[in-house]
Each structure stands twice: as C-alpha cells, then as structure tokens.
Amino acid sequence: MSHFVIIGAGQAGAALAAKLRALGHEGAITLIGDEPSLPYQRPPLSKKYLMNEMTLEQLHLRPARFYEDQGITLLTGRRVAEIRRESREIRLDDGTTLGYDGLALTTGRARAACLPRWAAIWSASMWCAIWPMSRGWGRNSSRGGGC
Ligand SMILES: Cc1cc2nc3c(=O)[nH]c(=O)nc-3n(C[C@H](O)[C@H](O)[C@H](O)COP(=O)(O)OP(=O)(O)OC[C@H]3O[C@@H](n4cnc5c(N)ncnc54)[C@H](O)[C@@H]3O)c2cc1C
C-alpha cells in the first residue's frame, strides 16, 4: 500500500489528510508539522483564543482521536529538513528518514509576511508566540500545549 506524506500540518495539510481517507486512500498517511500542537485554526488564534473567547480544544481543527481513528500518523514538533526526490524519501530535523510514494507540500507561505510589522517580532511559530501570551493574560496555566 502506498504511503502518502504531507509536509505542513496547518489547515491545508490537515484537510488533505482527512480528504485522502474520505476519498478511499487505504495506505499510510503521515502528516508532519513543525509546530508543537495539533493542527489548529489560525484566524481565531489572534482574536478569540487570545481574548479567552475560545478554548484550546475549540481552536484545534480535530481532536487527537480523529487522527488515530483515521489511521493518520501525526508528527508534531518535527521539521522536514530535506526532500530527496530521487530516492523518494524525506529527512526530518533529527536525521530520521521516511520513504514516500505520494508527497504534498502544505507548508503555507513565509510566516510574518502577511502580519503587521509589530507582529513580525514574534517567534517564527505563531503558536509559540500566542500560547504564552494567553497564559499571561489570565488563562489557566495548567492548560495543555506549550513550547
Ligand atoms: C494570526 C493569524 C490570523 C489570521 N487570520 C485570518 C483571517 O481572519 N482570515 C483569513 O482568511 N486568513 C487568516 N489568516 C491566514 C490563514 O490562517 C492562512 O491563510 C492559513 O493558515 C493557511 O493555511 P495553510 O495550511 O496553507 O498554511 P499554514 O497555516 O501556514 O500551515 C503550514 C504549516 O506548515 C508548517 N511547516 C512549514 N515548513 C515546514 C517544514 N519544513 N516541516 C514541517 N512543517 C512545516 C508550518 O509551521 C505551519 O504549521 C491568519 C493567519 C494568522 C497567522
């Protein structure tokens, strides 16, 4: 069975993984993201979540159980460092290599390019920037996630 690897666990990557299953792909699916959290919705991150109008669970596109139930291997906090097209494999930042039959790049676009200048000083990861801010602004510090 073929192995489909998706690099970038944002909205596009998470949607693609779910769609592949829905369309009948029976092989392995691996979704790889360099952010530490489950795939989440970005638009409400800087609005509702930061203002305590949304919970972390609501921010996530799907619960962790969804990926397990669908047989989607979700690797978070892992960056793809290299794509070796000749041998059809990718190398993660820790040196691990994974073979693939199908590959999709859903890595978004350069971060911060669409953000106002004041936001560009934030960490490369929006999640890493927002989460500690939300903690400091009154959220329960026992909330999960973190960087
Ligand atoms: C704070 C904020 C608010 C926004 N508000 C709105 C809004 O109100 N309305 C609207 O229309 N749009 C909004 N956007 C834009 C919208 O969220 C994006 O268009 C959307 O997130 C794009 O989804 P994507 O999956 O293509 O890319 P992304 O969400 O950027 O996801 C790509 C993922 O790939 C990961 N990645 C990149 N390179 C690698 C690698 N080498 N290895 C592993 N992982 C990698 C990235 O870390 C990221 O998690 C907002 C964006 C932000 C940041």
**CATH topology label:** FAD/NAD(P)-binding domain
Structural class: alpha/beta
How would you sum up the major sheet?
A: 4 strands, parallel
Ends distance: 35 Å
Short description:
The chain has 5 helices and 7 strands.
Question: Can you give a write-up of this model?
Answer:
- Strand 1 (4-7), helix 1 (11-22) and strand 2 form a beta-alpha-beta unit.
- The protein has one domain (4-107, 117-136): FAD/NAD(P)-binding domain (3-Layer(bba) Sandwich).
- Mean pLDDT is 82; it is low at 112-125 and 137-147.
- It is of the alpha/beta class.
- The protein has helices at 11-22, 45-49, 56-59, 64-69, 126-136; strands spanning 4-7, 29-32, 72-75, 80-84, 89-92, 97-99, 102-105.
- Flavin-adenine dinucleotide binds at residues 7-13, 32-35, 42-43, 45-46, 79-80, 106-108, 126.
